[in-house]
Structure formats: structure tokens, C-alpha cells
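Exercise 7. Given the components listed, write out the predicted structure of the assembled complex. Treat all entries as one system.
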Amino acid sequence: MSSENTHDKNFVKNNQIGVTGRKIIYDEDGKPCRSCNTLLDFQMVTGKISSTATPGHTSKSLAQSNQTLLFNKQDPPDVEELGKSTWTFLHSVAAKYPQTPNKEQQGDMKNFINIFSKIYPCTWCADDFKDYLEQNAPKVGSRDELGKWFCEAHNEVNVKLGKEKFDCNLWKKRWKDGWE
Ligand SMILES: Cc1cc2nc3c(=O)[nH]c(=O)nc-3n(C[C@H](O)[C@H](O)[C@H](O)COP(=O)(O)OP(=O)(O)OC[C@H]3O[C@@H](n4cnc5c(N)ncnc54)[C@H](O)[C@@H]3O)c2cc1C
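Answer.
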């Protein structure tokens, strides 16, 4: 099977095209990449939906015109929308972090978390997160360590907001592998 290297970690195989018209991207382990493909394309390539089941609303031109309308009407994010999007990003970063990161990758991740704590747009959330960092240095020695560290940081906020704690043994199912 031929593969084309599009990025050091991601690949397309035989220029396979998904139902949305985009190329299917694979991880280095040969599995379809969840965070690189749309949900529809991911479902198609993992056999959850047929490759011929192209819903009308996924056609490129309609999607583009809907997007234009949405762009015009969307408001800036509030603390909740910003938070949800940011946690999605942070947990997804952990899901793609190397299983055995080298020193440079570990240093980059520590720097990223440190800078993130200074620029997070909800300033009072950022202040609390900085305090959390001082008491709980980021664990960057492996993907699982980092994933659990972000999970615990997220739980700290959940508790502060009176929400349930997430079981951090399940972080990889939620943010990388899925539940099946
Ligand atoms: C660094 C940071 C600090 C924040 N501080 C504050 C704050 O001080 N005050 C405030 O009001 N809001 C804060 N927020 C926002 C807040 O955490 C939520 O994102 C927001 O309230 C929306 O909550 P939600 O119920 O939609 O789900 P979220 O808490 O955003 O979670 C999204 C999804 O993540 C999963 N999840 C939940 N907990 C965990 C976990 N521990 N590990 C892995 N996955 C999990 C669940 O599937 C959940 O549906 C902060 C956000 C960030 C990123």
C-alpha cells in the first residue's frame, strides 16, 4: 500500500477520499486519525457509515454558504464556550503527545503550559490555573502522565464549579480511543 507523507506524523493512503470530499488522514500507527478527520469521514473509514451515504448538508458549497451565515451571526465565546473548546484542545494535545517524549518535547510541553497559563483569556480562570501549576507541576514524562495531569487539572475546576469529577483512568477513552 502506498502512502504519502503529508506531515511527520500523519499520512494519506492511496489518496482515499472521505464522504466530505477531504483526504482521509491516518496516524503513524496506521489507524485513521480522529482529530485530523471530520466525524463523518472518520465514521466512513471505520465502517460506521457507508461511503456512499453522503448527506446533502455535507456538500461543499452548501456547507460553505451555511458557514458564512453562521460566521455573521456568532457572538464571541463566554466563559463556558471558551472553557469547553479549550479543554477539548488541551485533552486532544495530550492524546497526540508522544508516549515516550524526548527532552525537547518535554521542555516544549512545559513551556506551552506555562505560557498558556499567562494568556488564557478568562483572566480569573488563568489566575487560579497559575496557582494550581505552582502546587502541581505539569507531568510531561509520557502521554498517559500528561493526559492524567490535564484530567486532574480539569477536575480541580469541576470541583470548584460544583460539578462531578471525571474518572481520570478513562481520559484516553474520552479523548483518544473512543468508548468501543
Ligand atoms: C484552564 C481553565 C480554567 C477554567 N477555570 C474556570 C473557572 O475558574 N471558572 C469557570 O466558571 N470556568 C472555568 N473554566 C471553564 C470550565 O472548566 C468549563 O469548561 C465550562 O464551565 C463549560 O463546562 P462544560 O460543562 O461544558 O464541560 P467542560 O468542563 O468544559 O468539559 C468538556 C468535556 O470534557 C470532559 N471532561 C470533564 N471533566 C474532565 C476531566 N477532568 N478530564 C477529562 N475530560 C473531562 C467531559 O466529557 C465534558 O463534557 C476553565 C477552563 C479552563 C480551560
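Discussion: The chain has a mean pLDDT of 87. The domain at 79-177 is CATH 1.20.120.310 (Four Helix Bundle (Hemerythrin (Met), subunit A)).
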